[in-house]
């Protein structure tokens, strides 16, 4: 889902990361608050005050989303769901789960706690705004707290819309799951509602754009695209996890994969491997045993004039849990590693012996074939 992210800090054991796309959102929010919203409601303040208020509003939004996602993560931890962390990106934030909730009850409480937490934060900020008014605090302070109060209320209400993958959609899925005791069916229904909401927002964005509301229309259009895509992708991921649950890594690995020697020069590697096969990562063998892994990124870090003299042995890395896996491991484990690291190829290793390579491309081809044959019920 994300591009490059930066870890900011750890909160209650959860890593809080920000995708670089969120910086775009922060800049847009600061600008819109400083140049439009705050000057409209709080007139005759110095220009610097509006920009400080805009920056404070963006920071408050950041904290509000973190607390919202933290509430999800804490409940998930209570139900034994492993959480990788919290990541903020241009359309909000997400608590990154490694698996689906174990029961409808866990799904319900994990979903509903998000809007509840946002509503409570909003109520608290309304109280702070009222207290600041009575205490004679500066207008700028009251303006920011009032804005964040309303923002959290809107966040709570919007997330209650019963369209997957919004929190309300997850609540709907938990109810349908409980009713029919069928997670796949419940996800399919909730995803269709989410996809429909996304389409409605896209249409609303186009209409707003042609009515002259360019910025608002663009945002509705982009949010609609995201919700529609996320709803469809969530259902596909569920199908993939169910399909690969009964499969092992060895079922998908390619035996006798392409390998590189430690003594290969970087120039030869680029010409005879990178440009020819277009893989991002290659296993390195020494006397028939796996010695490490080398990636195109490793080579790119070396000055070009050194490529003819430098060898693979100087830049290769150890194959660890981020790029290697056991052949008896669950295929879903391979997907989880690929999703977490962004690596589309994993070395399949037994001890220090390379037995194959598993690729995301091959796994997706298998899933696509199963979907085309309408044969997702079988392994």
Describe the SSE topology:
Layout: E1 5-11, E2 14-19, H1 20-41, H2 47-78, E3 83-89, E4 92-97, H3 104-135, H4 139-159, H5 167-180, H6 183-210, H7 214-244, E5 260-261, H8 266-277, E6 281-286, E7 289-295, H9 296-300, E8 324-325, H10 331-341, E9 345-350, E10 353-359, H11 360-372
Parallel strand pairs: 2-3, 5-6, 8-9
Antiparallel strand pairs: 1-2, 3-4, 6-7, 9-10
Helix pairs in contact: 1-2, 2-3, 2-4, 3-4, 3-5, 5-6, 6-7
- Give the helix proportion (percent range): 55-70%
The shape is: globular
Instruction: Give the count of helical stretches.
Output: 11
The rounded distance between the terminal residues' Cα atoms is 27 Å
What is the average of the pLDDT values? 83
Tally of distinct domains: 2
Side by side, the strands of the main sheet go 1-2-3-4
What's the story with the biggest beta sheet? 4 strands, mixed
What is the number of E strands?
Answer: 10
Integer-rounded radius of gyration: 25 Å
